[in-house]
Design a protein that fits this description.
By secondary structure, the protein is an alpha/beta fold. It has a domain of about 200 residues: FAD/NAD(P)-binding domain (3-Layer(bba) Sandwich), CATH 3.50.50.60. It contains 15 helices and 25 strands. A hairpin with a 2-residue loop joins strand 12 and strand 13. The protein is globular, with a radius of gyration of 24 Å. About 5% of the residues have low confidence. InterPro entries: FAD/NAD-bd_sf, GMC_OxRdtase, GMC_OxRdtase_N, GMC_OxRtase_C. It comes from Rhamnusium bicolor.
């Protein structure tokens, strides 16, 4: 199906609701105080790195006393957590999981707090280099790219939406010459992942008993039924795109053979210059640098930005770039290239003509959450997702090219609340400040299959400096990307003008984007607005591309092994060679499950 909406997304039931406790006034006040502290932290936080000089460290001396594990997994996100968990099922294997971020708290686990987490130490605070065809409404024309820095990676800080993508994504993946990655091959892994407690469970496509708990929303606004009715008016079907869940991990007893070290940032993968064999890593913890050895393999699952950075720092990447930075080349590979990301236009804001009568008392919301695991605090503000094929698509089949991400956020709560998006104050003052005190919803139009690709590269040799990220948003030669988003805008406007939504009493925010006021036509205005109000959804992939040996752009093979380097695999979103028609949490978990099986096949 080419067009469909998902209504009733899935919500997190936090561990606190599983344990009975006395719901006292003091406990509620402490919980509310924790929420306020998180909001304050999100406003005041400035990123600081440890003052550390790795050049002054004697690696060879440290190796004599280094710990040794069978496997070292770098990164505890959607893929790394799965790999460490699955490998530890083999009792004779010792597994080390290294994570640069900190563990979560009960406060950070509250779904409604996820926007605040983007401006705290739980985010890497990545920004793009200055763009000239996108991000024009952001400070220095640099878009933010959210990436979780926590035990759990981005699954600890994102909106928890779980979408597998379209069947065709995986068939295109396999058609690149990559056996084992077509839809028929990956579906069993998706089912293995799930513990799907969802409405109208289809056992043909879903399963129970897996490590990822999926269930339907505990709370949403009154908007969702109207969106559904409006979609039906336009002939858009409502389907289970995979039940569009939100996800959380089961709490489980840690295996004795699994060691988890948070606040441990890996800065180099150690590869023998004689054998090209990976045999350990360097990492920083508490201001000190450590070396640890891997008897079998190192598995890099640090995410599509950190992974290429670590490979490059370790001499794995384009030879000329490495030599320019005085890094000894180990393997000449296109690391950091083929960067793809989903960008979204956030300028379609629809405002209710009258002030909403729906109010949520803060005290009641906290009580409902703590006592029942329900209510306003379980909501991320998203009412529906739509995956649609626009009129400009050249695909002959039913293959979506845009996503509608429909939320109750109309970006009108003050400029400081858009800090995580780096929106310029003059943009906020002109477009959204006049809406303060109003309620409504936004249809964010997300580009699913960008033709534009980018590059991430090292800024310098310092592993504590952020890499240079140039996604080249909206930079394709034939303007396919912006034309696709424009077609999505027209489709979203049709939805908003359906009888079902118009009876809510809504109107489009007509406040003009500065710099676009004098556009000659509506389409010219929308294109200008798209270039100003385009933001990253943090769905970066492809920077350590999977491909056959004949593919000059490939970094890993179909078994995730790095070309030219022994005992090193990459297993996260960076290996995905195609754009996915959905959010990346589920596909990244899939990569982790596949990686674990491949490792077991080779070593067990």
């Amino acid at each position: 199906m080419s067009q469909y909406f998902i209504i009733g997304l899935l919500a997190l039931i936090v561990t606190i609701t599983a344990s009975p406790f006395q719901l006292t006034e003091k406990y509620i006040d402490e919980f509310k105080h924790g929420l306020e502290e998180l909001k304050i932290l999100s406003k005041e936080y400035e990123y600081h790195q440890a003052d550390f000089n790795p050049e002054a460290y004697n690696e060879n001396h440290a190796l004599t006393d280094a710990e040794e594990f069978d496997f070292i997994v770098i990164g505890s996100g959607a893929s790394g957590a799965v790999i460490a968990n699955r490998l530890s099922e083999v009792p004779e294997w010792k597994v080390l999981l290294l994570e640069a971020g900190a563990p979560e708290t009960k406060i950070t686990q509250v779904p409604a707090t996820y926007p605040y987490l983007q401006t705290t130490p739980y985010n890497w605070w990545y920004t793009t280099v200055s763009q000239n065809k996108s991000c024009l409404g952001t400070e220095e024309n640099k878009c933010s790219i959210a990436s979780g820095k926590a035990l759990g990676g981005s699954t600890a800080t994102d909106d928890m939406i779980y979408t597998r993508g379209n069947h065709k994504d995986y068939d295109i993946w396999a058609d690149l010459g990559l056996d084992g990655w077509c839809w028929k091959d990956v579906l069993p892994y998706f089912k293995k992942i799930e513990d799907a407690h969802i409405h109208d469970l289809d056992r043909k496509h879903h399963s129970l008993g897996g490590p990822v708990h999926l269930e339907n929303f505990q709370h949403s606004s009154n908007l969702a039924p109207h969106i559904l009715e409006g979609a039906h008016e336009l002939g858009i079907k409502t389907v289970d795109y995979n039940a569009s869940p939100k996800l959380t991990w089961y709490q489980r007893i840690q295996e004795k053979n699994l060691v988890v070290r948070p606040l441990s940032q890996v800065i180099k993968i150690i590869v023998s210059p004689h054998t090209n064999e990976c045999y350990g890593v360097q990492y920083i913890h508490d201001g000190h640098l450590y070396v640890v050895k891997a008897a079998k393999e190192v598995v890099l699952a640090a995410g599509a930005i950190n992974t290429p950075q670590l490979l490059l720092l370790s001499g794995i990447g384009p030879k000329e770039d490495l030599e320019h930075l005085d890094i000894h080349p180990v393997a000449d590979l296109k690391v950091g290239h083929n960067l793809k990301d989903h960008i979204a236009f956030i300028g379609l804001n629809f405002v209710f003509n009258e002030t909403s009568s729906e109010e949520h008392k803060e005290y009641d919301a906290v009580v409902d959450y703590l006592k029942n695991g329900k209510g306003q605090l379980t909501s991320i503000g998203v009412d529906a997702l739509g995956f649609l094929k626009t009129e400009v698509s050249k695909d002959k089949g039913d293959y979506p090219d845009v996503e509608f991400y429909i939320s109750t956020d109309i970006y009108n709560k003050g400029h400081e609340h858009l800090k995580h998006l780096r929106i310029k104050k003059e943009i906020y003052d002109a477009v959204w400040a006049p809406l303060e005190g109003k309620k409504g919803f936004t249809i964010a139009v997300v580009l699913l299959h960008p033709k534009s690709t980018g590059v991430t590269a090292l800024h310098d040799k310092d592993p504590l400096h952020h890499p240079l990220i140039n996604p080249n948003y909206l930079h394709d030669e034939d303007d396919h990307d912006i034309e696709t988003i424009l077609a999505g805008v027209h489709k979203a406007l049709k939805l908003a003008h359906t009888e079902s939504l118009q009876k809510l009493g809504i109107h489009l925010n007509h406040n003009k984007v500065p710099g676009c006021e004098h556009a000659e036509t509506d389409d010219d205005y929308w294109k200008c607005a798209i270039r100003h109000l385009s933001v990253s959804f943090g769905h970066v992939s492809g920077t350590a591309k999977m491909g056959p040996e004949t593919d000059k752009g490939a970094v890993v093979d179909h078994k995730l092994r790095v070309y030219g380097v022994h005992k090193l695999r990459v297993a996260d979103a960076s290996v995905i060679p195609v754009s996915i028609s959905g959010h990346l949490a589920a596909p990244t978990i899939l990569v982790g499950e596949k990686a674990a099986d491949l490792l077991k096949e080779d070593w067990k």
